[in-house]
Amino acid sequence: MASHTGQDICDRTFEFAVRIVGFSQRLDEAGGVPRILGRQLLRAGTSIGANVEEAQAGQSRADFQSKIDIALKEARETRYWLRLLATCSILTTDELDSVAREATEIARILGAISASTRRRTPLGSLFTFLLSHFAFR
After folding, report:
1. The model's pTM
2. How far apart are CA 8 and CA 14, in angstroms?
3. Quick one: the chain helix, strand, coil %, rounded to 5?
């Protein structure tokens, strides 16, 4: 596995999506339940990077936050599908180990970005706005 030190999250989630596409193609060829689970994995795993890219063009901090939070949810969902594929012996743990680790690392990074963005959002100004516009007098 390549070192990701300093790698841009957009590039990292794109590379992750490419790996997910490869797994999904193999599952699609198997047919039946693997095909169905592969499609779920494909939707969730490729959505992470798409939402990170969307966040980069966010029209506001709230828009950025929303897209990062969606990407985080998709990363968690991707981990779920990978775990299910391993537990049901559809793919081996050896096959899934590195991609599952990468999904976990991406989720941690997105969680940190989300938390950092939330800390920088001035809740005080929101309360001031609400009080000044909707205060009972």
Report:
1. 0.81
2. 10
3. 85, 0, 15
The dihedral built from the CA positions of residue 53, 54, 56 and 62, taken in this order, carries a sign that is: negative
First to last CA, the chain: 63
Tokens 């968690």 correspond to 76
- Cα dihedral 115, 119, 121, 127 sign: positive
- CA-wise closest residue to 20 among 98, 88, 92: 98
Residue labelled with tokens 């047919």: 31
CA dihedral 16, 18, 20, 22 (to 10 degrees): -150
Domain 9-134, what architecture? Up-down Bundle (1.20)
Rounded Cα distance between 1 and 113, Å, is 23
Q: What are the mean pLDDT values of the chain's consecutive 10-residue runs (137 residues total)? A: 62 97 96 97 98 92 94 98 95 91 96 88 50 48
